[in-house]
Specification:
By secondary structure, the protein is an alpha/beta fold. The protein has twelve helices and ten strands. The chain has two domains: 228 residues, Rossmann fold (3-Layer(aba) Sandwich); 94 residues, Rossmann fold (3-Layer(aba) Sandwich), CATH 3.40.50. Helix 2 crosses helix 3 and helix 6 crosses helix 7.
């Protein structure tokens, strides 16, 4: 068997059963069900695992990645971890250009999988640096901000639910996940709507509101894994029904709420999506509507215990979750 055949089989063979749905009670909103699609059960612990698989699958199928190709990417956090995992599985060198200054926590997760981390400032410099490095090495710039999408997520989720939900909520990262979900719902004639949860400093909410596809803030997000300083090309505003801005402190409060009720030490990206889902549940309740809201979560990791779940760390970052914690209590308690 050729390497290409083996590699493609690796990228297309199912690894595990569907990730579970967690029912989060909402006594304050009778008739509205809140479900959490727990992507932390992926092999690399996040929703980025599916996207990394899709990126590698497309690159191998197109002949852009072959045996020995050096993979180069511009990203940080969970996306880099997932890509490093697939690169190691395929026996490929992996180098990621991350924004900002080196932090051991971010670097170690990739380096433990055999990858190499390089850091660049300002944040927007990582894209040109990655392209240049890939050209220099004769490698392949994976480009997670392109249009490769994890179609299996939508198929799996809607099959699990049976009845279409009123809303599906995901964080604003590359834009690929919201595009996949929106396209699936529309292609299959489903009434489900897609909402994108956007953290502070991110470009998606103002770009979507102003209908400006090249909108940029130039500022990095404080929420690992989501929030972009520019609207990425994978974001499809025509497939998104609503973009909800979420304060970072509210995302921290929601992440802690999730940990309390599920035991999962999720990060603020999951908290951002949960806060937006609760906002939608509130709006449905106010309009007398019933139905299901699904929020995607999936960055549960012990490292978050020393950041988003630690009062000293959040105080140093000027994040005060207390007011939002009180609001969460009101929203979720009968």
């Amino acid at each position: 068997m050729s390497w290409n055949t083996d590699a493609f089989a690796t990228l297309t063979t199912p690894e595990q059963p569907p990730t579970p749905l967690i029912d989060l009670p909402l006594p304050a909103a009778p008739g509205i069900r809140l479900l959490l699609k727990d992507e932390s059960k992926q092999p690399t612990g996040s929703l980025r695992h599916r996207h990394a698989r899709a990126l590698f699958r497309r690159a191998v199928a197109d002949g852009l990645v072959t045996e020995g190709t050096t993979i180069v990417e511009a990203t940080g956090g969970n996306a880099a971890v997932a890509q490093a995992w697939f690169a190691r599985r395929l026996g490929l060198p992996y180098i990621v250009i991350m924004p900002g200054e080196r932090t051991e926590a971010r670097a170690r997760a990739v380096e433990d999988l055999g990858g190499e981390c390089r850091f660049r400032t300002p944040p927007l410099a990582i894209y040109d640096a990655a392209r240049a490095l890939a050209a220099e090495l004769g490698g392949h710039y994976l480009d997670q901000f392109g249009r490769a999408t994890p179609h299996d997520l939508a198929e799996e989720l809607f099959a699990q639910l049976g009845e279409p939900p009123a809303w599906v909520v995901t964080g604003a990262g590359t834009g690929a996940t919201s595009a996949t979900l929106g396209r699936w719902a529309r292609d299959h004639g489903l009434p489900s709507r897609v909402a994108v949860a956007d953290p502070d400093n991110s470009a998606y909410f103002p770009g979507w509101t102003l209908d400006t596809p090249d909108y940029a803030t130039g500022m990095p997000s404080r929420v690992e894994g989501i929030g972009r300083p520019r609207v990425e090309p994978g974001f499809r505003p025509d497939l998104v029904d609503l973009v909800i801005p979420v304060p970072d402190a509210a995302a921290v409060a929601a992440a802690r709420h999730l940990r309390t009720h599920t035991g999962l030490p999720v990060g603020a990206s999951s908290g951002t999506a949960l806060w937006a889902a609760l906002e939608l549940a509130d709006r449905m309740r106010a309009r007398g509507e019933t139905g299901t809201v699904v929020s995607l979560i999936g960055d549960a990791a012990p490292r978050h215990l020393s950041t988003y779940h630690d009062d000293t760390w959040t105080a140093a970052k000027n994040l005060d979750p207390a007011p939002y914690t009180a609001e969460l209590h009101t929203r979720t308690t009968a």
